[in-house]
Amino acid sequence: MYLVFFCVLLFFNCKETKEGNTSIVIIETNNRERVSFESTSALEDLRIVLENQPDIPILGDWSSEGDTITFMPVLPFTIGQTYNIKNRGGAVYVFDIEQESIKSATELLAIYPTTDSVPENLLKMYLVFSKPMQELGNSLDYITVLDNTSNKEVTVFLELQSELWNKDHTTLTLWLDPGRVKTDLIPNKILGLPIQEGHNYTITINANWKDSQGQPIDSTYTKTLSVGSRDSEKPNTKNWTINPPKKETKEPLTIHFNEALDYFLAMGSFTILDSDKNNIAGTFSLSNKERELHFYPNQTWKLGIYTMSVENRLEDLAGNNLNHLFDTDLKANDSKVKNNNNTYMSFIIQ
């Protein structure tokens, strides 16, 4: 729980007497998301600033109901910072955002792909945190990549002005520069691939990276990548193996891919249908470093023929999907590229 502690500056009474009006008299409610107080001041006379940045107003929305004024900042007030409420340019109230007690620190739950062996044309990685992360700053400031083979720090990830976070701000997608991954493009010709075959890399996630509450993550994390040859083949469902469960059980249906696939695309690209083409409710999970998919039904399996629908947007670690290679020029080869939406595979429960 977070508290906002307010204190009145000593000169407040003098200012109030000099101006002959009633400014801020009572702080009514407060937290990191908003501050409310009673005042007869006009909204256009008020602003909130950081104490160490008195000339830069905090962005947010002002509203009033009677004598109660509420300010909601665009971004939550930051723990450990001191703010001033100003009336016509003069500081009237000072408040601090302090943490009442230390809660469990945010953890980095997973780095995908979980395998350490990746192709030299690896396209994406994902960082998954246990709590929402800060929305300010550049995430790449907290991520370093060391080429252990050359003993040099290298630039691997593409810096984006608008970072690719999920809605909850707990999962960050990191792209290895596609212009360098895709052959025959100028960045590839000038800079080469972001990671090189035969090299080993250590990715370090700095413990100074803060969550949305302004608290650093629980520790520094590292991941090693061992880079193999280029993956120039599409995922092929003919190479997959389906292990059907037994009837009248809730055993999982298991699909072996024989290669690591993109975690989040794999988790969202499969549907299981019964013999009447109705969706079967259940839960998916991945294992064996994203090489195996398991489907756990909510109800027991019945005797019959089932269909597994796979969205063709499903990708391997190099961004190759079921329709085409990542390196394919879709415009130039439009007549040669298949763009089917789904692939279907059948299995029998007996």
TrEMBL record:
The keyword Signal applies. This is SbsA Ig-like domain-containing protein. It comes from the Bacteria. InterPro entries: Cu-Rt/internalin_Ig-like. Keywords: Signal. The lineage of its organism: Bacteria, Pseudomonadati, Bacteroidota, Flavobacteriia, Flavobacteriales.
